[in-house]
Amino acid sequence: MFARLFAQSGLSLDRLRALVEVGARGSIVRAAEGDFARQSQYSRQIKELGDFFQIALVERHGKGVRLTAHGKELARISRFFLLGLSNFQRGCLAEGQTFRIGASTTFLSQFLLPLLARSGSAPAGVRFTVETVTDAEAERRLHDLTLDFAVVTQGTLSRPLQTKELGQWRLWLWVPKTICRNARQAARAFAAGQLSLAWPVAELPPDVLGVLGDREPPLTCNTFLEARTALAARRFATVLPDFLEPGPDPDGFLRVRTAALNALQFHYHLAWNPRLLRLNPHAARRRDALAVALAGQFASA
Fold first, then answer.
1. 96-166+267-299 has which CATH code?
2. CATH architecture assignment, domain 13-87
3. How many other C-beta atoms are found inside a 10 Å radius of the C-beta of residue 4?
């Protein structure tokens, strides 16, 4: 069945691992982390793999090289294979497991980290690593199996990724009372484009981008938490999810309902790759436990 694969030299676990590491970091230089000897080794190993399969696995990109489409596909297959071997080894040695979870900065801060920090949130031997990721990055890394789970705002991801809803949320416009006297005045100023806004572009779902039209806010930042910090200076208004208060002095701000924002409803979803569950059956229990616990955290916010 596999005679042709082993009829010639050039295929090995070390070479496949080199390809996987380069694929995960995006280039040979980044994967080698400044080690010229390792960089040369990676280049040689990937060339030997390319010779074995008789295809180009890397291509020139600027001053360096990156994986070709064939290289990315072989890296994906290899990662799947090596993860299966690694999980099998851990099971044989009765070792613990580490699960990698990605989410936005705000979701990590408000829900995920408080949950994981709680005593008894995971059985003995289970560890977690959390990372800040965008929805697009989360989707790519779930496909690559460099994340085990992710929390995203999109309910439908490309196949075979699957999701489970954790909760719904809306956006509120928050305006310092030093800028507007009342909510009606603030709503009119927002509709007319007369408010100085701090706009958290990285965490706003795509549906919100059209609310501003052609207007460019005077301050853009990445996260809702950064926008809340700007709001505290009382020079900017901003939008925050309904689970996030403006700070220790909410009485100094107007919470404003606007027609444009009120028409929008958003969701958080736990996402995963079902291939992970085939590689690691224990991941199904972690997925289910996370989904229940995070939905509970969100509901009580």
1. 3.40.190.10
2. Orthogonal Bundle (1.10)
3. 7
